[in-house]
């Protein structure tokens, strides 16, 4: 009797997310990336994996112990805040950011604080030499005996270090520099990154060892490498900041152990990096005398209320086409508000140069800052300062109406904590019980807000 042969069909796999297809397509059906579906060789038509014996019986969910998932604080308050309270045993964290933003400095600070608390940290560097890392650690005061440094680029050597050092925390800087001798391709390639990530994640899970992987970013700011890495890890954090500002923000784009709405604030200093639990001083100028063209507002970044001060300057233009320059705010949003102010309030700036900026390099993109932006423009045009200790929140519609925004009560409470005595809010929002020392002024239109905030003789 002739032996039967299993039919095979060509297999195609997306190099970004691992999605498979029986025929080639130009666009991945899972991650929607173009040109990433490649032939993966012959794949069996029927199932190749058979049922085997059970190694560990299934446990009722109430009987599963939660002690193994208890968190341990790193000592860096803002880092713990983003993670949801600290490191979870076996958790794998992917930290991405642009070159020079301060990723290695942050990790060295975390490593030093963990060592001082009685832990042992294995820091694997593949981008820098051991001497370079030592100089940075000396500059930020992170020279600790229990911080073990290994300059390795081979995956097998990294796994051997895990067995030899027996650390309580592992940091890999970076995942794109580690390569496996069992996989063809250069370090940082799709196959290498996938293999290295899988091996390191498996090692972290089997040992119950928290691990931080540093990743590169692409030109558009996304995490470099195959998207499957982001699916495999437990937490994806993005470290961002402007090179001209010492402020750094840490955001969680994915977190299996906590919320993704938390934002951590840091400040780069000469001695390293510092957590900023109250960043209000970075975003508010708080000058002794009120200056025309400035208006504070309270933004919400994730779940965190952050103050921002918007500054505007309106000056006569000598050009046929007046300038419209913005920094920290959305340019098309400013153009829309200028049109609304011209049509609904009678503020004519067609022949003037208009400059709008924020204090401290803050980035204000949410519509809740529209009223503050409109007040700053009106104040600059009239050369009359906004009333002292006033702030404003609200979205401005094309009709000139002030629309409600989310978390108004939280914004008002933050304004009261910062010392503001009056806050302009949309009329159709509930502020709840007001904190002591603050008054709210509900408005229905931007013209009403301008009349309230700008004193008249």
From TrEMBL:
Short sequence motif RadA KNRFG motif: positions: 254-258
Residues where ATP binds: 97-104
Region of interest (Lon-protease-like), residue spans: 353-457
CDD domains reported in the protein's UniProt record: RadA_SMS_N
Gene3D superfamilies named among the record's database cross-references: 3.30.230.10, P-loop containing nucleotide triphosphate hydrolases
Keyword check for Transcription regulation: no
Domain RecA family profile: 68-217
Keywords assigned: ATP-binding, DNA damage, DNA repair, DNA-binding, Hydrolase, Metal-binding, Nucleotide-binding, Stress response, Zinc, Zinc-finger
Task of the protein: Plays a role in repairing double-strand DNA breaks, probably involving stabilizing or processing branched DNA or blocked replication forks.
Stored NCBIfam families: sms
Domains: entry comment: The middle region has homology to RecA with ATPase motifs including the RadA KNRFG motif, while the C-terminus is homologous to Lon protease.
Homology family: Belongs to the RecA family. RadA subfamily.
Protein name: DNA repair protein RadA
Organism: Demequina sediminis
Gene: radA_1
């Amino acid at each position: 009797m002739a032996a039967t042969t299993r039919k095979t069909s060509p297999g195609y796999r997306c190099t970004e997310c691992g999605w498979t297809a029986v025929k080639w397509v130009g666009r991945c059906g899972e991650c929607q990336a173009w040109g990433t579906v490649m032939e993966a060789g012959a794949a069996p038509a029927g199932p190749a994996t058979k049922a085997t014996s059970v190694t560990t019986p299934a446990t009722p969910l109430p009987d599963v112990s939660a002690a193994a998932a208890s968190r341990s604080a790193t000592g860096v308050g803002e880092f713990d805040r983003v993670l949801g309270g600290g490191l979870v045993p076996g958790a794998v964290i992917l930290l991405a950011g642009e070159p020079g933003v301060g990723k290695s400095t942050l990790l060295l600070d975390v490593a030093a604080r963990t060592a001082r608390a009685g832990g042992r940290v294995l820091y694997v560097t593949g981008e820098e030499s051991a001497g370079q890392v030592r100089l940075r650690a000396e500059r930020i005061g992170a020279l600790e005996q229990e911080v073990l440094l290994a300059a390795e680029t081979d995956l097998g050597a990294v796994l051997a270090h895990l067995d030899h050092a027996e650390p309580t925390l592992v940091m890999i800087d970076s995942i794109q520099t580690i390569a496996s001798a069992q996989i063809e391709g250069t370090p940082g390639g799709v196959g290498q990154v996938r293999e290295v990530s899988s091996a390191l994640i498996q090692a972290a899970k089997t040992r119950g060892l928290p691990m931080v992987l540093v990743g590169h970013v692409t030109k558009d700011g996304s995490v470099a490498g195959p998207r499957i890495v982001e699916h495999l890890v437990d937490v994806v954090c993005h470290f961002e900041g402007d090179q001209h500002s010492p402020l750094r923000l840490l955001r969680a784009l994915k977190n299996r152990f906590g919320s993704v709405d938390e934002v951590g604030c840091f400040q780069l200093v000469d001695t390293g990096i510092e957590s900023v639990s109250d960043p209000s001083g970075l975003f508010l100028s708080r000058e002794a005398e009120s200056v025309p063209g400035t208006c504070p507002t309270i933004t919400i970044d994730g779940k965190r209320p952050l103050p921002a001060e918007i500054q505007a300057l309106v000056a006569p233009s000598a050009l046929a086409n007046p300038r419209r320059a913005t920094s920290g705010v959305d340019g098309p949003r400013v153009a829309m508000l200028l049109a609304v102010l011209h049509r609904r309030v009678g503020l004519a700036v067609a022949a003037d140069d208009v400059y709008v900026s924020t204090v401290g390099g803050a980035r204000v993109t949410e519509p809740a800052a529209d009223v503050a932006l409109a007040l700053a423009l009106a104040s600059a045009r009239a050369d009359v300062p906004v009333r002292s200790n006033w702030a404003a929140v609200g979205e401005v519609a094309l009709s000139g109406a002030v629309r409600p925004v989310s978390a108004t009560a939280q914004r008002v409470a933050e304004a009261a904590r910062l010392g503001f005595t009056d806050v302009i809010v949309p009329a159709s929002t509930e502020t709840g019980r007001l904190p002591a020392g603050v008054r709210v002024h509900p408005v229905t239109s931007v013209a009403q807000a301008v009349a309230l905030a700008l004193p008249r003789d």
